[in-house]
Automatic annotation (TrEMBL):
Gene3D superfamilies: Nucleic acid-binding proteins, Winged helix-like DNA-binding domain superfamily/Winged helix DNA-binding domain
Protein family according to the UniProt entry: Belongs to the CvfB family.
Conserved virulence factor B-like winged helix domain span: 219-275
InterPro entries: CvfB_fam, CvfB_S1_st, CvfB_WH, NA-bd_OB-fold, WH-like_DNA-bd_sf
UniProt lineage: Bacteria, Pseudomonadati, Bacteroidota, Flavobacteriia, Flavobacteriales
Boundaries of every Conserved virulence factor B first S1 domain copy: 4-63
Originating organism: Bizionia argentinensis JUB59
Protein name: GntR family transcriptional regulator
Length: 277
């Protein structure tokens, strides 16, 4: 079966004037237009191609690499807005359509939007949606507490930043746990900090609890080395000062310097912490 919106490995069936016809294992055919035909090929060679509907709603295979595929999230630029909806640049000749009903906020030409790509059942066309939450499900979680996860920054809230977890679930990074600049569409690693009874996920950008002590302590040691063995920070320092200097919470900082002090690697004085010679 030829899958629309995905890469397909297909065999070259025959050469024609408009291009090569490719075939899957079930005998389904699709055209690879001349502009995508490789310089050298043989009948029955296999090609990896992306399949979608062209401007005339015909199934077509291409060798272009799209910025987003079916079932994926990506940040795309809006090229135009018409009476029917918005058209997004996804790296293909035919732009990706986002109907008004699938826009969380009205899209504007030149704007960038986080969208999900899916196959519309009625038109059999690939379309985009900026209403990304409808494609996430926390009813049956596939993650556990403390597990490392892949994140896509989704949209801000009054208490933090919403994120997409492993392309499946919805999670939240609370403002107090954000120690770096985050932009919509950013992809980064994180950890499941807490799973609430309603399956809501609290996400952290650094390892948490006892797991965070070692990497944070290591970071402080590196900062001490880089600053001549002294940091003007103590357990009484303002949380914002610690955040700006080390990108960690005051709680994590206190745990880390406590570990280093017990290991006799630092001295803690009124004016800051010193590296033990």
């Amino acid at each position: 079966m030829i899958k629309i919106g995905e890469y397909n490995t297909l065999e070259i069936l025959r050469e024609t004037e408009p291009g090569l016809f490719l075939e899957d294992d079930e005998g389904n055919e699709v055209l690879l237009p001349n502009r995508y035909v490789p310089k050298e090929f043989k009948i029955w060679d296999k090609l990896d191609v992306f399949v979608y509907l062209d401007n005339e709603e015909r199934l077509v295979a291409v060798t272009d690499k799209p910025y987003i595929m079916r079932g994926e999230f990506a940040v795309l630029r809006c090229n135009a807005v018409t009476d029917h909806g918005a058209f997004l640049d996804w790296g293909m000749v035919k732009e990706l359509f986002c109907p008004f009903r699938e826009q969380a906020f009205s899209m504007k030409k030149g704007g960038w939007y986080l969208v999900y790509c899916f196959l519309d059942d009625e038109s059999n066309r690939l379309v985009a949606s900026s209403k990304t939450n409808q494609f996430l499900d926390n009813k049956e979680l596939t993650v556990e507490q403390f597990q490392e996860v892949d994140l896509i920054v989704s949209h801000p809230s009054d208490i933090g930043m919403n994120v997409i977890v492993n392309k499946i679930h919805q999670g939240l990074i609370f403002t107090d746990d954000i120690f770096q600049d985050l932009s919509i569409g950013d992809r980064l690693k994180g950890f499941v900090k807490k799973i609430r009874p309603d399956n809501k996920l609290d996400i952290g950008l650094g390892k948490i609890g006892y797991r965070s002590i070692e990497p944070n302590a290591d970071l402080i040691m590196k900062e001490l080395d880089d600053h001549g063995g002294f940091l003007k920070l103590t357990d009484k320092s303002d949380p914002e000062a610690i955040k700006n200097a080390l990108q960690m919470s005051k709680k994590s900082f206190k745990k880390a310097i406590g570990t280093l002090y017990k290991q006799k690697l630092i001295e803690i004085k009124d004016d800051g912490i010193y590296l033990v010679e």
